[in-house]
Amino acid sequence: QVHLVESGGGLVQPGGSLRLSCTASGSIDSIYAMGWYRQVPGRERELVVLMSRGGSTNYADSVKGRFTFSTDYTWNAVYLQMNNLKPEDTAIYYCNAHNYKNYEYWGQGTQVTVSS
């Protein structure tokens, strides 16, 4: 079992920045990939960014050039640096992990609101 806890969400003005953190515990050695998803009420969760153990990082087109994923590669923690935030970035952001069987684990979610 993998347990994920997000933090760092909040209210920020358009053009501002925010840094999300996700702490992982449990069977960390089973993790193959980690990343972030987000969800707006009434919509499906959408991929923001995902990094595999091999080092490949995939970003959603809507956040390329503005968001940066990082980790120390121990999978104890991952981060999402969000710059030049836009109102359309408003969502609940979820930390995500895949094990080697592609079973998915999810954090509780942290609210990000971009508004003037």
List descriptors.
about 120 residues; four-stranded antiparallel β-sheet
Q: What does the radius of gyration come to?
A: 13 Å
State which percent range the strand residues make up.
over 45%
Number of alpha- plus pi-helical segments = 0
In round numbers, the mean pLDDT is 95
Report the count of strand segments: 11
**Order of H and E elements:** EEEEEEEEEEE
Q: Kindly state the percentage of residues in helix.
A: under 10%
Low-confidence stretches: none
Distance between the termini: 40 Å
Question: Mind describing the biggest β-sheet?
Answer: 7 strands, mixed
Oligomer: single chain
Task: Tell me what you see in this structure.
The chain is mainly β. 0% of the residues lie in helices and 56% in strands. It contains no helices and eleven strands. It has strands at residues 2-7, 10-12, 18-26, 31-39, 46-52, 57-59, 67-71, 77-82, 91-99, 104-106, 110-114. Strands 2, 4, 5, 6, 9, 10 and 11 form a seven-stranded mixed beta sheet that branches. A four-stranded antiparallel beta sheet has the order 1-3-8-7, with no helix packed on it. β5 (46-52) and β6 (57-59) form a beta hairpin. It is globular and about 40 Å long. The protein starts with a strand and ends with a strand. The mean pLDDT is 95.
